[in-house]
Here is the input.
Amino acid sequence: MNLVLGTDPLEGANLAISILDNFKNSNCLTIATTHYQELKNYALITNGFENASVEFDISTLSPTYKLLVGIPGKSNAFDISRKLGLKEEIIKNAQSLLTKDEINVEELLKSIYNDKSKIENMKEKIQNDLNDVSLLKISLLSDNEQLRKQEKDIINNAKIQARNILLEAKEDATFIIKEMSNISTNKNLDNQRNILNKKIKDIKLEDSKQYIHNSLTVNDIKLGLDVFITTLNQNGTIISNISRSNEVQVQIGSMKMNINIKHLSRIDKPNVIKKDINSSYTSISKTRTAKTEINVIGYNIEEAIFVVDKFLDDCSLAKIQNARIVHGKGTGKLKNGIHQFLKKHPHIKNYRMGVFGEGEMGVTIVELN
Here is the structure.
């Protein structure tokens, strides 16, 4: 805003101030550009006005297009003239013609301008650093989630392998028992009984040494303490102090895992359990009165499969041909998990959903071999 060409610049500046005041009093949003120093000074001391400028790189004689709100633009006439090759004595003579007040105001504006420019550059750097930190945080969270998934997969695979070993052992025992039912001579019966006894001794479905496990408290936690991990059915050693989330790092063989102390128990002393081979025959005789229905509503898939597997073994030994598994309707997740298990079960000849009067979608009817 440089008004009234050919008129005294001071009069033009005052006229510009009056026009801007009129816009302000009329509640008009106004953007004005100017070289008048008087307008810059007026905006510094008057409410309702705000100075702003676009940063200028004196080294390249080009604007950076970075808006600096709050400070007026500084005059670059002498610096630009020096860059363009104007004699230094002419520039110094021009500077000497400035009044003391003009020099002080110009130096003040330059100082404000430089400080504001530095602050803006620092803000930009800080923002970039914050962006880098955010990306790093996202990356760490992703890595942590991946580790938790791997840990979960390892645990699930270990449980599946253990269950498969158990199923294979039960299949061997069931096969021998069925063979014994078809034996007609005492000699063959003794031979098969000896084979069964040997297999039962060879199949270690559980450790002969059971430990008494007592729950841990925060005060019990200490480095080097041997513990039992209830979720993994494994022993381990504490190798870290407790965290705010009540977790400690536990060494399990060559693997280290963070585990909540609610899943840890103290190992006090071994208790040797004596196994009686006759107990196997006792359990076999009990299956002769096995039930034809089992209810697993409220179980998770893993728990339900273990219970159903034992139920089917009992039914097979008792020569039950048809049985009911009550799993409820719910989301269908439990039903689907049981059906996947039944597809590969050696005792199952066929299975179907219940019909009206049998429990419909909440019950699965199985036919055994």
Q: What stands out?
A: Residues 204-211, 271-288 have pLDDT under 50 and may be disordered. The first strand starts at residue 52 and ends at 57. The chain has three domains: 9-130, 209-272, 287-369.
